[in-house]
């Protein structure tokens, strides 16, 4: 161990004399180690939740469900029961999120707030930056409405005003006093919020539900009581569940099933999560690239080992032990991998931020949902993983030279000509490593190619409407304002302001965005066949919706100003819904019965079908399903999206720059508490829907291209080194009559033979892996012929160039010079 620092220093000095060889190897390792570390950190952060709070090993989440669904959240009365009637879990608190219009008297913005019980901040033992945090007294009936701001919201929206304490902000139309600012980076449980208010304020700020036992809206967490195990806590909750079943039975007589789960354990809902399976696949690609990097290091160290054989022989003849020589080899491998690991931390940080940007990409219409939440955390577990794979890389990289030191004849090179090693036995291990590199490169290119092709195919999907020149402006109007002034009047002003904005050709309102995947399902049945109900998605739209969005009406008419609340109830159905209910028969004029458990009044009277519209997709990667469109006169909703079609003379990309600023100013005139949640071009909306596919294609494509470069450089380096070692042999061949073209073909043939073996192995591996990644593909077969033909052809052409350069050098050797130089 005392020799290790000196050996490492000597190894670094020796390697630094060859920067052209050392730098690519270190960068390759840095990319592989960094990518594996970032993807591991994401997996670990998702599977094993972490929280910054005292005694994290005792923190648990509590769920209130039934036999069919164990993982439900709580209503407020149930949380009260939990606090009062059991003692196995202490420090219980509840939390939920809601979207809100926030006004400071000068402007109104949209933000996601946290509804939390009074002991929320004390649970985390955090301190405020300014003022104080929420206390249990703030979450009691009759307490004045107060709030705590997040540090991000305080700085970003209010400019970090130190006098913010005592200031009143309007949250969804209700005045709430700021009492403090939370610490920077605080995110509590799960996602952070822009501000925090007592849970009892839900009736005034969000949805009336505080005394409703059937309204489940609170996630509940706590700590195991001292001396209580997880099993004992579960037994105590089972007893409480039975007692509550006797006192306040659930509707339908179902038995409660309360469940307690350690917060650090794997979330059971994520066990079969497809997103995690796909992330594991990406991690597998990163590991393949890392193996490719290890092969590159091994190749480099083997080359150095071959070049040092005479030096080793001299040292061995002077008394150097194999252990001493072995430590030098290990030191060189460790230096390369430590440098790669250190640089890899920077790569991991950058890739983690990129992964977060994809994972936290919010669907259009919800605003800044993540509120600055940091999802990928680098903790001790991630650091240990990075250290482990760094040491493993050092071990794998040194295997070849280690075997050469342990099993080789150290004095042999002193008795023979080094050039006799040639392309044969002396370089055989390097040939194997190059074949491995090419095989891994083929595997990465094929999997990356399939994912890039998937993204390309998904981007070509016809959504069913015209997205060019279409702006999406989601607005939020507080429920209290809607109830007090009448939402229809406010939304009429919104439409009037939008239609009068310069550059706007038409405008409409909708509850759900097209191709958003957010539509709830209702049950629909033809009035003459009510026993045949089908599940359909629905949307609530205003007149001109179909014209603005660009959805053709195939039969009948669109919804218009005739379809008001006091008029006969009218709906437009999609073509697929018409086919499901009435086959090939006419749909216009038919009557529908709609059942929506969330709005029982909808089913009181039938609807008349006045039109049939073209099918549009729920998401870009799903086939269109049945859809029904209600008139906005039927429902008054606090959050809707304004769809604006820009003038024909404006290109899609110019729409934002030209129309958006004026549109924002116009909408501010509709109501002081109206907040623009988001204003984006529809093309951006569609792109966000493919965030996962873009992440896959981007990461896999990067690995594929870098892997190709590493493999081709390895091939080029091997052949170049081989030609330099074989100078005497090649000189003799040409001296006895071999034509330079024969020498060139010899080197080319030997190099391309390695490529052929590598391609064969890579194709075999890719056939197995591609079937496992079938769930990540869209519009592309797992064994897509185009990809499986194009990749080997491209690789062969690039490899041919890499082989040609050393082959040309070999053909240009002067036999006399080659013979004299050896």
Explain briefly what this protein structure is.
It is built from 24 helices and 21 strands. With 822 residues, the protein is of the alpha+beta class.
Q: What would you note in describing this structure?
A:
The chain contains 24 helices and 21 strands. It has a six-stranded mixed β-barrel with strand order 2-3-8-5-7-6. A six-stranded mixed barrel has the order 13-14-19-16-18-17. A four-stranded antiparallel β-sheet has the order 12-20-11-21. Helix 13 (428-459) packs across helix 22. It is globular. It starts with a helix and ends with a helix. Mean pLDDT is 83; it is low at 418-425.
Oligomer: single chain
Give the overall pLDDT as a whole number.
83
Spatial gap, N to C terminus: 40 Å
SS class: alpha+beta
> Which runs of at least 5 residues are low in confidence (pLDDT < 50)?
418-425
Radius of gyration: 34 Å
Number of strands: 21
Question: Key terms for this structure?
Answer:
6-stranded mixed barrel; alpha+beta; 822 residues; single chain; 6-stranded mixed beta barrel; 16% strand
List the topology elements:
Blueprint: H1 4-16, H2 19-47, E1 59-65, H3 76-84, E2 89-103, E3 108-116, H4 120-124, E4 130-131, E5 146-149, H5 151-156, E6 168-171, E7 174-181, E8 195-198, H6 202-205, E9 219-224, H7 230-247, E10 257-262, H8 274-307, H9 309-317, H10 322-359, H11 380-407, H12 412-415, H13 428-459, E11 470-476, H14 479-485, H15 487-499, E12 504-510, E13 521-526, E14 534-541, H16 545-549, E15 553-556, E16 570-574, H17 575-582, E17 591-595, E18 607-613, E19 627-631, E20 639-646, H18 652-667, E21 675-681, H19 682-688, H20 691-725, H21 727-735, H22 740-772, H23 785-811, H24 815-820
């Amino acid at each position: 161990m005392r020799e290790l620092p000196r050996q490492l220093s000597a190894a670094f000095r020796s390697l630094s004399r060859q920067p052209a060889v050392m730098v690519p190897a270190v960068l390759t390792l840095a990319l592989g180690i960094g990518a594996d570390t970032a993807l591991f950190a994401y997996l670990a952060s998702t599977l094993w939740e972490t929280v910054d709070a005292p005694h994290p090993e005792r923190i648990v989440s509590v769920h209130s469900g039934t036999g069919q669904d164990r993982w439900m959240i709580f209503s407020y009365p149930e949380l009260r029961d939990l606090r009062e009637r059991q003692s196995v879990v202490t420090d219980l608190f509840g939390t939920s999120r809601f979207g809100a219009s926030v006004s400071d008297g000068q402007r109104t913005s949209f933000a996601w707030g946290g509804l939390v019980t009074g002991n929320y901040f004390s649970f985390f033992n955090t301190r405020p930056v300014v003022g104080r945090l929420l206390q249990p007294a703030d979450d009691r009936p009759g307490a004045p409405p107060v709030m705590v701001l997040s540090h991000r919201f305080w700085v970003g929206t209010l400019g970090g005003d130190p006098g913010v304490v005592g200031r009143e902000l309007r949250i969804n139309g209700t005045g709430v006093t700021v009492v403090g600012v939370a610490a920077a980076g605080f995110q509590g449980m799960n996602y952070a919020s822009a501000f925090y208010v007592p849970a009892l304020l839900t009736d005034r700020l969000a949805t009336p539900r505080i005394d409703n036992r059937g309204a489940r809206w609170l996630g509940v967490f706590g700590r195991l009581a001292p001396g209580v195990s997880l099993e004992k806590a579960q037994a105590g909750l089972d007893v409480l569940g039975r007692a509550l079943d006797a006192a306040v039975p659930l509707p339908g007589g179902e038995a409660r099933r309360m469940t307690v789960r350690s917060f650090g354990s794997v979330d059971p809902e994520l066990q079969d999560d497809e997103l995690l399976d796909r992330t594991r696949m990406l991690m597998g690609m990163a590991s393949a690239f890392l193996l490719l990097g290890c092969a590159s290091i091994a190749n480099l160290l083997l080359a150095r080992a071959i070049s040092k054989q005479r030096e080793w022989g001299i040292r061995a003849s002077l008394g150097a032990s194999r252990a001493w020589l072995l430590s030098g080899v290990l030191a060189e491998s460790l230096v390369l991998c430590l440098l790669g690991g250190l640089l890899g931390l920077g790569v991991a940080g950058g890739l983690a931020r990129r992964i977060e940007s994809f994972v936290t990409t919010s669907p259009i219409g919800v605003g800044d949902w993540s509120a600055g939440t940091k999802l990928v955390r680098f903790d001790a577990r991630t650091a240990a993983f990075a250290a482990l794979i760094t040491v493993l890389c050092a071990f794998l990289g040194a295997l070849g030279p280690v075997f050469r030191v342990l099993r080789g004849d150290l004095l042999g090179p002193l008795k023979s000509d080094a050039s006799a090693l040639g392309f044969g036995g002396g370089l055989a291990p390097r040939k194997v490593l190059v074949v491995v590199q090419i095989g891994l490169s083929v595997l990465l290119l094929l999997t990356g190619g399939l994912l890039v092709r998937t993204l390309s195919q998904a981007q070509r999907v016809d959504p069913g409407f015209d997205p060019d020149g279409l702006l999406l402006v989601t607005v939020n109007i507080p429920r209290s304002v809607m109830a007090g002034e009448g939402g229809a009047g406010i939304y009429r002003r919104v439409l009037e302001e939008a239609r009068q904005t310069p550059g706007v050709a038409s405008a409409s309102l909708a509850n759900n965005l097209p191709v958003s995947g957010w539509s709830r399902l209702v049950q629909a049945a033809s009035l003459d066949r009510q026993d045949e109900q089908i599940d359909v998605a629905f949307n609530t739209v205003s007149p001109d919706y179909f014209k603005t969005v660009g959805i053709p009406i195939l039969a009948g008419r669109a919804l218009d100003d005739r379809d008001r609340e006091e008029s006969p109830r009218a709906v437009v159905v999609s073509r697929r819904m018409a086919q499901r209910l009435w086959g090939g028969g006419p749909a216009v004029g038919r009557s529908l019965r709609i059942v929506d458990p969330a709005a029982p009044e909808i089913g009181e009277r039938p609807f008349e079908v006045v039109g049939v519209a073209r099918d549009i997709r729920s998401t870009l990667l799903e086939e269109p399903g049945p859809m029904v469109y209600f008139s906005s006169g039927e429902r008054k909703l606090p959050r809707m999206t304004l769809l604006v079609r820009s003038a024909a003379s404006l290109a899609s990309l110019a729409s934002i720059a030209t129309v958006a600023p004026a549109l924002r100013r116009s909408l501010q005139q509709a109501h002081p508490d109206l907040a623009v949640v988001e204003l984006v071009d529809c093309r951006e909306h569609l792109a966000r829907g493919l965030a996962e596919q873009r992440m896959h294609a981007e990461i896999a494509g990067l690995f594929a291209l870098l892997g190709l470069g590493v493999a081709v450089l390895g091939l080029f380096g091997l052949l170049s080194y081989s030609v330099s070692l074989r100078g005497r042999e090649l000189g003799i061949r040409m001296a006895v009559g071999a034509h330079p073209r024969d020498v060139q073909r010899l080197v080319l043939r030997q190099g391309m033979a390695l490529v052929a073996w590598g391609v064969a192995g890579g194709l075999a591996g890719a056939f197995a892996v591609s079937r496992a990644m079938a769930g990540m593909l869209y519009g592309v077969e797992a064994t897509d012929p185009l990809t499986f033909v194009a990749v080997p052809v491209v690789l062969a052409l690039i490899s041919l160039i890499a082989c040609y350069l050393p082959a040309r050098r070999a053909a240009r050797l002067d036999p006399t010079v080659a013979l004299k130089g050896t």
